[in-house]
Amino acid sequence: MELANGGQLNATPVHDSERAAKGQVELELAGFGTVVVEKEKVLRIENPQVSEDAYFDQASQFADTVEDQWKLAQWCNQNGLARCFQRHAHRVLQLDPNFAPARFALGYQQRSGQWVSQEEIQRERGYIRHDGKWMTVQEAALATAREKHEQDLIDWAIRLRRWRQQLGKSNAPEVQIDFENETNPDMVPGLISLLGDESNSSLIELYIRVLGRLDSPRARTFLMENAVFQNNPNHRLLCQKEVLRFKDPRMVEFYTGLLQSYDNTIVNRTAEILAQLDYPSAIAPLAGALQTRHLAPHSARHTYFYTSIQPDHYFDISGPRDSYRSLTLQQFLSRSNNAYDTVWVQNHGVRQALIAICDGEDFGFEPASWKAWYKKAYAPESPTIRLSRDH
Asked: If you count Cβ atoms within 10 Å of the first and of the last residue's Cβ in the chain, which end, N or C, has fewer?
């Protein structure tokens, strides 16, 4: 493999990797296990079709002439030996600087009778080379900032792991973190990872409290999702407490989308957090979710429902599968070739949420009555229109 920073690595991509996220690749290093890296850091994967011994056997049969070196370069190219092709093509140009096939193969162009390299062309256009790629100065600056940020995230993750490993083992720990006053959002990914491996309930509560205090969209989204998805009721409650600390009317839009979930448990859990947020803008969506259609029990028997997974004392930071997080019943049915029976379900959790938001009013499972009450209580009154001038 040729890396973007110019280095080389002998490794094999793991094509069915469970560790690599989107935009990443897991590499298997012979004798050293595996490592996950960003795909953009891998410039090219060279997959030779012949062995190194076969290459040397072949190369020994060619003389150091323009004709033979070009034949060898073409053989290397046909057998997936990209770097060897480059080496022999450049040797051809050392022997004959005007050998056009090699010039063109290496990216040269002819201008006013002169051969101009790809590098010269790019620099004339104002591009610079950064991590093996051509880009503008501005793009390079952004890439550098992005790389620094990624390194900061890694440094925080390592620091948090070391802090946890030495906790309780030393009176003078090497790594100290003031969780109550730390405000750096770069710690969020590492803290979430640490949370997923934590078995100490007091530390779980600490990590969630810190996530709630940090000014980080990622932390807030994580807490908002787990205020509904988390199957451990204690962990779900901890997330709900933090969500209520930074509550915002815009959260209603996020949660009302989950009221259409194919999973009835998610519908009622969502209603629970909407009741605690206590925003009138949730009344109409909740009224529309008083009765929702779901798979009949016999049809749902072999269907994936994240909420049916038995929780343990660990905080599940993964949550539902990505394709099921906001899945509606209609989407579920449309992507399956199987026939499913469905039933209408009255959602008592939704009704209780409406009662809480509407100051104790109760219109049962009649959406129209709830919406009419909302319109009367919160809709602005129509202005009085004067049809004639008063004298």
From this structure: C
